[in-house]
Specification:
The structure is a single chain. The chain has 199 residues and is of the alpha/beta class. It has two domains: 49 residues, Helicase, Ruva Protein, domain 3, CATH 1.10.8; 127 residues, Dna Topoisomerase Vi A Subunit, Chain: A, domain 2 (3-Layer(aba) Sandwich), CATH 3.40.1360. Helices cover 44% and strands 13% of the residues. It contains eight helices and six strands, in the order αααββαβαβαβαβα.
């Protein structure tokens, strides 16, 4: 027995397909969309369609853009000899929020994950190698997450890049600011010790 109209059920199913959205949240979102005035609902739908039409990958760094090149690649004030490799476009936002990094990026759009059937050919490694092969890059910073897949991806890329005579580095990991040593796990403490520097 169906409790809701077919259109509402379809809308709920579409929201449930989004990452991190469960059945109840999808239902709440669907009801919220139905409660919107007609004009706001049309704006919402239009924003989705417009983003889908206009947003594409930057041919240089693989980040999302609505222009020929993304604003970071276009910026002549940035250091074009350094590339920070990240897994997803949202990682670029996190790095930019710190306002400390002034180089370029390369977005892989995933990490190597054999359990999820994602291999090196399924992410944007070829494009990175082509960029580095042009000879202007002096350093590649691996900024993938410090989990199993992120570490495996960083190690795989470093093996590919080492013969190209450039510096390959990894972000340092350690104790988060504001936390206490007694709550840090062994791996975090090891990384903190390995990444120590002079003060």
């Amino acid at each position: 027995m169906r409790f809701f109209p077919v259109a509402l059920e379809r809308l709920t199913e579409q929201f449930a397909r989004l990452p991190g959205i469960g059945g109840k949240t999808a239902q709440r979102l669907a009801f919220h969309v139905l409660s919107l005035p007609e004009e706001e609902a049309a704006d919402f739908a239009s924003a989705i369609l417009e983003a889908k039409k206009s947003v594409h990958l930057c041919p240089c760094c693989m980040n999302l853009t609505d222009r020929e090149l993304c604003p970071i690649c276009e910026d002549d004030d940035r250091d074009h000899s350094v590339i920070c490799v990240v897994a997803e476009p949202r990682d670029v936002i996190a790095m930019e929020r710190a306002r400390e990094y002034n180089g370029l990026y390369h977005v892989l759009h995933g990490v190597i994950s054999p359990l999820n059937h994602i291999g090196p050919d399924d992410i944007r490694i070829r494009e990175l190698l082509a960029r580095v092969g042009r000879g202007q890059v002096k350093e590649v910073i691996m900024a993938t997450n410090p989990d199993t897949e992120g570490e495996a991806t960083a190690m795989y890329l470093s093996r590919l890049l080492r013969p190209m005579e450039l510096r390959v580095t990894r972000l340092a990991y350690g104790i988060p600011v504001g936390s206490q040593l007694e709550y840090a796990d062994e791996v975090t403490l090891l990384r903190a010790l390995e990444g120590r520097r002079d003060i």
